[in-house]
Specification:
Distance between the termini: 41 Å
Oligomer: single chain
Shape: elongated
Number of strands: 4
Radius of gyration: 30 Å
Helix content: 55-70%
């Protein structure tokens, strides 16, 4: 029974009152079972703290708190336990994240048992809250440097709170209300007559893992909670709990629990969320659901679950209750759009990916005329960039003509050009045009690989021009589909290998792809990935090619390609002469090289352009670089010394060193 109970509590922390009620009723009949229960739970709590299973440890503490309410454990022994946990906050050598976690453990238990403490141990409760207040106001080092990078919005008009500070403020309001709250599940109240007759157990002493024994463990990092909706956004007949009200914390905790349990099953998750909302008909739970889902989706450094999961759940909610959720989602999207100028780049990119997918499930219907302000601002302004990237993603999921028909004519400047290839050797006056004609005839005539290679070798042109001509011919002939171009590249791979003699020739191949498919970012991405897999180009050359296009660095596709290149390099093994496998460069080395390339283009940009308060190009490049670093925290932690050196070497680059210093402070 106890083993099953531990598993249930770990996955259902907001249901601990149910399990505590069951245990309390059993304890009424069997006192020994109650003693075994508290001993087992305390051993499990110590074990989870030693293993670094933070969520499981917090769930067990919540159950122990509810055991006091169910008259199984004594009030005094729980107070001793909470004070013991809070002693960690006084450790001089403890890390900030270790202190914060133990403070959070204590704070999260107080809403459950605060009223019981208030009625029976008021002075002890006041002493406990004073210790917490001392920690939060004086002992706790300001987390601003760590939290600065996690802000979804760069200004203070949109409400966003550090999670521990927010919970502390909610607890203070609860204390002012004499620890009375109305939203927590308390089934033990119905059995008060029976539970009050039980003999209670003192909790055994807990042995906390010392700081030196858990240096290998990483405690949860700071995170931000932001708000999308104001109280007035809820319908008049529903009440949206205030952000500093403990009700908001309880409702959101229930939503987060359901999301953790069912995020992989969109239909089940949506049904469970709706069922939870139905249990609180007086509250605007639907607004809280959308706010939590989008809050986690846009959370920095990354979303807790796959971004596609959030989108799938929101779509399912809109299908189940179209009259409610479709309107709330539209309301949230409009709020996000009005704040795009202040949104972090990583969050904006995720907003693009989610909303394009969302629109694709609802026939791309949207009130586009409400967003026409984005057509009257700078092309690199966040609202213009968002809409442009949104159109690109929608066209990938549909086709260009369909999207063009749906949006007003005023958006013409933000629509991508037709994704047509550009074959420059149609101009017969260009150097290499004669070779291009010969190659086109040979490839269309299905000449052998040896004959085609002979044509290229016989041409009196420099090596890079030969590569450019050959690549452009291959891309021109295979322009009808992915299948066509892949078949040609695979057939003529020996010719490409023959022409490749180092980084310059590899760059020439990539430049040819960029020229022919300049109007089709998706095809550039796919073709460069194919060249990597065929081992015709190296990851380092791809990075050179990406940062060799500074004007394109503000767009998403190049950074997506960079991320894909790094991911490919994690698992690839290069084969030389079809015999000897060679390990490719480590991802950390490639990341450092990418940061150096980025520093170079940023410095050149600062030298060649006048510095303005709104340097949108630098904003996009730095933001996407930070997003790339966030995706590789573990790798960067191992090479933080080299990253520090890069920041020192490029100190004349005004904004990059500061970004690197803040990032390193966060990941330590």
């Amino acid at each position: 029974i106890l083993r099953i109970l531990i598993d249930c509590v770990a996955t259902h922390p907001m249901q601990t009152a149910v399990y505590a009620t069951f245990l309390g009723l059993v304890n009424v009949r069997d006192y020994e079972f109650g003693g075994e229960t508290v001993s087992h739970l305390m051993r499990q709590l110590a074990k989870q703290l030693h293993l670094g299973e933070w969520n499981a440890a917090r769930s067990l503490l919540l159950l122990l708190a509810d055991l006091v309410n169910a008259s199984l454990a004594t009030v005094g022994s729980l107070l001793q336990l909470l004070n013991l946990l809070l002693d960690v906050c006084d450790e001089e050598e403890a890390t900030q994240s270790r202190r914060d976690f133990y403070a959070y453990m204590v704070m999260s238990a107080l809403p459950l048992v605060g009223r019981e403490f208030y009625e029976k141990k008021e002075l002890a409760l006041q002493a406990l809250t004073k210790r917490l207040q001392l920690y939060m106001s004086k002992q706790r080092r300001a987390p601003e440097s760590e939290v600065a990078l996690l802000r979804v919005w760069s200004h203070s008009e949109m409400s966003q709170h550090e999670y521990l500070e927010l919970l502390w403020q909610q607890l203070m309001r609860l204390a002012n209300n004499n620890w009375i709250e109305q939203q927590l599940l308390r089934p033990y109240v119905a059995f008060d007559d029976r539970l009050s007759t039980a003999l209670q157990h003192a909790l055994p002493t807990l042995q906390l893992p010392p700081q030196r024994a858990v240096l290998r463990l990483r405690y949860p990092k700071s995170r931000l909670v932001f708000r999308l909706f104001e109280l007035s956004d809820a319908p008049t007949h529903l009440r949206l709990p205030e952000e500093l009200d403990i009700e908001r914390y309880v409702v959101e905790s229930h939503i987060l629990e359901l999301l953790q349990l069912h995020h992989l099953e969109r239909k089940l998750c949506a049904a469970q969320l709706l069922a939870f909302a139905a249990t609180k008909p007086q509250l605007a739970v639907e607004h809280c659901v959308v706010e939590v889902l989008l809050g986690q989706l846009l959370q920095l450094p990354h979303a807790p679950y796959l971004p596609i999961n959030y989108g799938a759940i929101i779509i399912e909610l809109c299908k189940l209750q179209p009259c409610k959720f479709s309107q709330i989602v539209a309301q949230a999207v409009d709020v996000l759009f009005t704040q795009l100028e202040f949104m972090s780049v990583s969050s904006l990119d995720r907003f693009v990916l989610w909303f394009s997918h969302h629109l694709s499930n609802f026939r791309y219907q949207w009130s586009w005329q409400d967003w026409e302000s984005c057509t009257k601002v700078s092309p690199l302004h966040p609202s213009a960039m968002f809409v442009r990237e949104l159109f690109k993603r929608c066209m990938r999921l549909s086709y260009r003509e369909h999207i063009v028909q749906l949006v007003p004519y005023s958006y013409a400047a933000l629509l991508p050009p037709p994704p047509e290839p550009s074959f420059k050797y149609i101009d017969q006056l260009l150097p290499g045009a004669q070779l291009a004609n010969q190659l086109l005839q040979a490839i269309r005539g299905k000449s052998s690989v040896l004959d085609i290679g002979g044509l290229i070798e016989a041409a009196e042109l420099d090596a890079e021009l030969k590569i450019d001509v050959f690549m452009q011919c291959c891309l021109h002939i295979g322009c009808k589909s992915f299948t066509h171009i892949f078949a040609i590249l695979c057939k003529l791979q020996p010719v490409l290998q023959m022409l490749t003699h180092g980084a310059d020739s590899e760059l020439a191949m990539l430049r040819a792809i960029g020229e022919v498919w300049a109007a089709n970012e998706q095809l550039q991405f796919v073709l460069v990935e194919k060249m990597l897999k065929m081992q015709l180009v190296t990851a380092r050359v791809v990075i050179d090619w990406i940062f060799g296009q500074p004007q394109q660095l503000c767009y998403m596709y190049l950074w997506d390609l960079l991320q894909s290149t790094l991911k490919f390099s994690q698992h690839a093994v290069v084969v030389v002469n079809a015999e000897v496998p060679v390990e490719p460069p480590k991802v950390g080395d490639l990341l450092l090289y990418a940061v150096q390339c980025c520093a170079k283009v940023l410095t050149e940009h600062e030298l060649s352009s006048e510095l303005k308060n709104t340097d949108y190009w630098s904003h996009w490049v730095l933001g996407r670089l930070l997003g790339l670093l966030f995706n590789h925290i573990e790798e960067m932690r191992e090479i933080s010394a080299q990253l520090t050196k890069i920041a020192a070497d490029w100190e004349h680059c005004k904004r990059l060193p500061k970004l690197i210093e803040s990032y390193l402070a966060y990941i330590q």
